[in-house]
What we know:
- By secondary structure, this protein is an alpha/beta fold.
- It is built from 10 helices and 10 strands.
- The protein has helices spanning 12-28, 52-57, 64-68, 78-87, 99-106, 120-130, 143-150, 171-185, 203-211, 249-263, and strands spanning 36-39, 46-48, 95-97, 112-116, 136-139, 158-162, 190-197, 217-223, 236-242, 270-276.
- The longest helix is centred in the N-terminal third of the chain and has 17 residues, at 12-28.
- It is globular, with a radius of gyration of 18 Å.
- It binds S-adenosylmethionine.
- S-adenosylmethionine binds at residues 1, 3, 5, 17, 41-43, 98-99, 116-119, 122, 142-143, 163, 165.
Amino acid sequence: MNYRHFYHVGSFADVFKHALLVTIIDALQQKNKPFCYIDTHAGIGNYDLTREETQRSKEYLQGIDKLLHAQDPLPDLKHYIDLINDYQHHGDLRCYPGSPMIAKHLLRPDDHMIVNELHPADFNSLKLTLGKNPNIHCHHRDAYEFLPAILPPIPARACILIDPPFERTDEFSAILRCLHYCFQRFPTGIYMIWYPIVSLQHRPFTREILREKLAPTLVSEFTLTAIPQEKSGIIGCGMVILNPPWKIEKIIGDITTYLFTLFKKDNSGHYRTELFTNEINQRDSN
Ligand SMILES: C[S@@+](CC[C@H](N)C(=O)[O-])C[C@H]1O[C@@H](n2cnc3c(N)ncnc32)[C@H](O)[C@@H]1O
């Protein structure tokens, strides 16, 4: 396990992922019924942007820092932006909450959270960061064994974030295999699967997930430049959302378009947000 999120924290990819996470949790909280947030690859929860490794890559300068300085930010991003600003102790951008801390911040008294992290040191940091809370449970397991094992959750209204490091060459097929088990146990959950775009190789994943017809599926993604044929560094990212909340596609589409425009490097990138219902997702999507 070589991946360390503190090199990439606050990047354009984190902003996209976390802005969508806040949007989905907001949608779930429109109903006065408790829900459960599940995070399969939780990371450490809190990131000090001044730490040496983060300062070496400074990816947050092209991500969250850029968004916080945007002249006219999209109103749909206000909740996420406020959350990040509130998280700062002294005004300046010095720390950044990971997905479990963002969710914890949004949790209502009856909502629950189950988080998982495999890296031993990161798991210990995560537990310390989240603190003792009877509604929050931390697991130290392999994500693909953990997730089916805890489903269905209580309460059985849940949003599940699957955010792997994509170190394994078979990560996409591991996710697909895992989703099969998960849907047998919990077909009504909202599953959010984040993926990087480094070449054309992500296309079979989105195509395959649509072919499975597991549930209505929203695909939203953008690239900052044209997609190279061969593997490069990360040039874009996307989110597949299975069972998206009703009518969420408009807000997700607006957020994706806005972030693409804010972060793009030239005019060769692309963005898209498409909703596939069970009837239409037989068609091949790229
Ligand atoms: C992209 S980071 C997670 C970032 C976090 N979700 C966030 O948004 O703040 C991926 C995390 O997955 C952990 N990880 C790697 N392989 C794992 C596995 N098989 N099961 C669970 N966690 C794993 C890594 O240690 C890393 O902390």
